[in-house]
Amino acid sequence: MALKTFRPTSPGLRQLVIVDRAGLWKGAPVKSLTEGKSKSGGRNNSGRITTRHIGGGHKQTYRYIDFRRRKHDVPATVERLEYDPNRTAFIALIKYEDGEVAYILAPQRLSVGDTVVAGEKVDVKPGNAMPLASMPIGTIIHNVELKPGRGGQIARSAGSFAQLVGRDSGWAILKLGSGETRRVRQECMGSIGAVSNPDHSNAVTGKAGRTRWKGTRPTVRGITMNPIDHPNGGRTNGGKHWVTPWGKPTKGAKTRKNKATDKFIVRSRHLKKKK
Questions:
Q1: Is residue 15, in this structure, part of any structural domain at all?
Q2: How many separate domains does the chain show?
Q3: Residue 62, φ and ψ in degrees, nearest 5
Q4: Per-residue model confidence (pLDDT) at position 274
């Protein structure tokens, strides 16, 4: 889908660039596949703000997405492509031959009327899902599992994808969008193709109010605050390093703590920066 611009009949429209969603379903989602969502405003059960910059925004309904794709060897037809307010990608409503319906992440080049299927040995075409062991080397994939049966966790946002670059004694080697190369068990499932809505990153908000519609509140810089309110507060920074309001360093400080999964990383995403 293409990007859409507007004639500058108001200051907010002058810079606005949005994704043209004319080809998507205009009605309501399937009610049996949805659940109500309540807003927290970034507050915990005692009413204190635990995550800043959250509040307001349009009311949303959560759509259940089938990230597991465990209904094997049953073809399904794409009934329609839909907008989902909970994610940047579009979703597809599929109807299996036995009448069951489900939502899946819509990949690029998937159209209404196409047939998708999940299984051990299926065609390599957008929307189909299979274990990494069954895929040819070089395949572009999305919605990849990290553990067999857990459901897809890698490459799920708009336009993202991973690439199967090799195999090694029961492991599949994936190149991720970040530049990281990672090992995953080849029993894990993945879906063929790149995720839909690649133009999402090119959209321009156009005005501050549009960010408020999405549920994001304004961010105040620490240096503009008083010293009582922020470690970087005051008229000058005074040679201090930039930190969060709670004193944790920002500006590139390493925060990765999970050393247990280091053995799965073949090549770090940071190596390309050091060259």
A1: yes
A2: 1
A3: -80, 135
A4: 63
Spatial contact of 74 and 116, defined as CB atoms under 8 Å apart: no
Distance CA 81, CA 26 (A): 10
Looking at residue 215, its pLDDT comes to 96
Residues spanned by the domain of 182: 3-200
Q: Is 215 within the bounds of a domain?
A: no
Per residue in 239-275, pLDDT tens? 788 999 999 999 988 888 999 999 999 999 988 766 6
Question: Hey, CA dihedral for 48, 50, 54, 59, is it positive or negative?
Answer: negative
Residue 214 falls inside a structural domain: no
Write the DSSP symbol of residue 74. -
pLDDT digits (tens, 9 = 90+) for 121-175: 999 999 999 999 999 999 999 999 999 999 999 999 999 999 999 999 999 999 9
pTM attached to this predicted model: 0.91
Cβ burial of 48 (10 Å; 0-12, 13-18, 19+) is exposed
Residue 206, in any domain of the structure = no
